[in-house]
Amino acid sequence: MLVHHFLVRTARSHGDRTALLVAGARHTFAEIDGDSDRLACELQALGVVRGDRVMVMLENSTEMVIALWATLKAGAVFVPVSPAVRDDRLAFLLEDSGARCVVAPARHRHRVVAAMANSPAPCDPVWVGPANGALPGERHLADILAQPHRFPTDPGLIDQDLCLIIYTSGSTGQPKGVMLTHRTIGNNVWSISSYLGNVADDVVLCVLPLSFDYGLFQILTGARVGFAVVLERSFAYPFEVLKRIGEHRVTGLPGVPTLFATLLQFAPFQGLDLSSLRYLSNTAAPFPPAHIQRLREELPWCRIFSMYGLTECTRVSYLDPERLETKITSVGRPMPNSEVYVVDDDGRRLAAGQVGELVVRGTSLMRGYWRRPEETARTLRAGEIPGEPVLHTGDLFRMDAEGDLYFVGRRDDVFKCRGEKVSPREVETVVFELADVAEAAVIGVPDPMDGMAVKLCLVAREGTTLDERTVRAHCRARLEPHLVPRIIEMCAALPKTDSGKISKSRLRAAAASAQE
Hints:
Blueprint: H1 5-14, E1 18-22, E2 25-28, H2 29-45, E3 53-56, H3 62-73, E4 77-80, H4 87-97, E5 101-105, H5 109-116, E6 124-128, E7 139-140, H6 141-145, E8 162-167, E9 177-181, H7 182-196, E10 203-206, H8 213-225, E11 228-231, H9 238-248, E12 252-255, H10 257-264, E13 279-282, H11 289-298, E14 303-308, E15 317-319, H12 324-327, E16 333-334, E17 338-343, E18 356-362, E19 368-369, H13 373-379, E20 380-382, E21 389-399, E22 405-410, E23 415-417, E24 420-422, H14 424-431, E25 437-447, E26 451-460, H15 468-478, E27 487-490, H16 504-515
Parallel strand pairs: 1-11, 3-4, 3-5, 5-6, 6-7, 10-11, 12-13, 13-14, 26-27
Antiparallel strand pairs: 1-2, 8-9, 9-19, 14-15, 15-16, 17-18, 18-21, 20-21, 21-22, 23-24, 25-26
């Protein structure tokens, strides 16, 4: 089955079911299916053919979802990009992807046109939103959707064809486009929805950007299973967004640690009805055990899934909520139809308890990095079975005797202080035990005595009086001397990536600038 068949099948069998709730408007699967047919026909009329890339630069919206399905129905590859992307990066992404078409807000016309000027391949825009100052011949989504319904021409795809190219954040060097096939996406949607226990009666609240794979998968899974997605543009006004849980009887809330840290600031949730929640799921960064415990206390009926994943294979593992009591620091076991193991620097499997790089094998893996054969070869390497590549994640893990995984840190994040290895994750876990900590991140900064000093950047919960002295005393009581932060910086906020993950590269860059 191809990925867009999820929508087509559900629209035919349950077309009147709610697919999206956006800004108070309800959209059924049949409506989304029909509108995406219209846009797919227009894309094909523009010359988009099998394998072409269509870049969609929209915020969370009905139009973003329609553009997703239309791209796939036209036989093209969906390339999601945040509308907040910098101009230089937008120009790079257009050039690197060789996009044949870009769907973007009309208010960003000048930015998009300037970026397209440097693209070597022809690229046609489709504008979304008010058409003030429209030029003759320009295409606008509203006009396209007002046309009579037509079916796009079958592009003849098979499940090995590319479905998505999702660009990584590019914290080091230029962004890399992760290539995912229809087969891979189909496998991963099935696997994730299986262990989450998704059913057609679910209602999922998505505040994650659809330019981020974790957000996008809520739409894909909703179409496969037949559940509704309440789509929010951001989490800028958290209390108002959280009110949607009671209003729409939301059953699932996917998030990242920063989202759940914000959620906990509203505990004990007076004025909020969260009784319909069936599960919370976390990925993108490790879930602090202290936050898991607090959520369990505040929402004892809710199942909490601590997960680990990366764009190169969507998801790797999850911890069964029934095992949180004894494995709260673990990210669990491999998701269905996947295998993982830990290796040393020579690629040899390590025994239980030893720390090494996590390797993943299975259908969940990316095809590679778009136009990056050398970087692909470093990440996808020959496995134990001839002809089968496996994914070297670059993340350090240990596995216990029962097969449960424990995240140690990114290989690039681990550093030495006084000759001893420092895993930022270990320090952060202890810091989060302080109830007044909202966000925390540990980095290494050059130091003439220790080689690298431990620097802690943290944000206190609103309305609290957390100070450095309290934090340092707590760390001294719980950590070995070389792990105790030498520098503690109290911040109003920590820099984030588009997906809401704390950007340690920006913290390191700021620290380096301060030392110059």
